[in-house]
Specification:
Blueprint (H helix, E strand, L loop, with lengths): L3 E5 L3 H12 L3 E6 L2 H7 L6 E4 L5 H6 L7 E4 L4 H13 L5 E6 L5 H6 L4 E4 H21 L1 E2 L2 E9 L20 E8 L2 E3 L12 E7 H12 L2
Parallel strand pairs: 1-2, 1-4, 2-3, 4-5, 5-6
Antiparallel strand pairs: 7-8, 8-11, 9-10, 9-11
Length: 221
Amino acid sequence: MKTNILLVGGRSKAKSLATSLMHRGYRVTVINEIYEDCLKLAEIDKLTVIQGDGTKPFVLEDANAGSADIAIALTNKDEDNLVICELCKKQFHVKKTVALVSDPKKTEFFYSMGIDRVVCAIAAITDIIEQQAVVDKMATLVPIGEGRVSIAEVPITNAAPVIGKKLWEINLPKQVIIGCILRGDTTMVPRGDTRILAGDMLVLISSDKQEMAAIKELTGR
């Protein structure tokens, strides 16, 4: 049985996330208050789109929130995202709720209110910067053979030969790893069974001598 996911708000974030989730086989419903955004979302095949304010119980009911396994609140207002998740959890008994927050100071409060997962873009970007700083330091200190550690961002276009493949299916050089995948507004630490999708940005960590061979394997160029 397919997992049902409810997305509330988000505009462009909702569109990219819905596309990614449906590609993975999930059944997705989106609630959006803006009519023009709903028209753009409706262009996605088999996506259920409901126009309305997701903080209103009757709108959530129209979207059949009670059948959702996961509800994700993506509006640009932290307080609305909290209300949406609270309604989904307490009134519609959604198993798992996820809230986007713009203020990292609110993360702990959201968890205390019973939200299952809180995502803060600022915190995620900070983590990436810190990780980059660590790897940059490694690159100056830790040699690999006669070369050094290299970091490259590789965009995956629609023409890339690795689209749809799992990481373990890709023939990367031994001294290359995909350390991170940037997918829309999401930062992922990949596993062997993670599939590569069009639009992904791959962060490669490699030796200087293997970087170009890895990029050619991933992009076909």
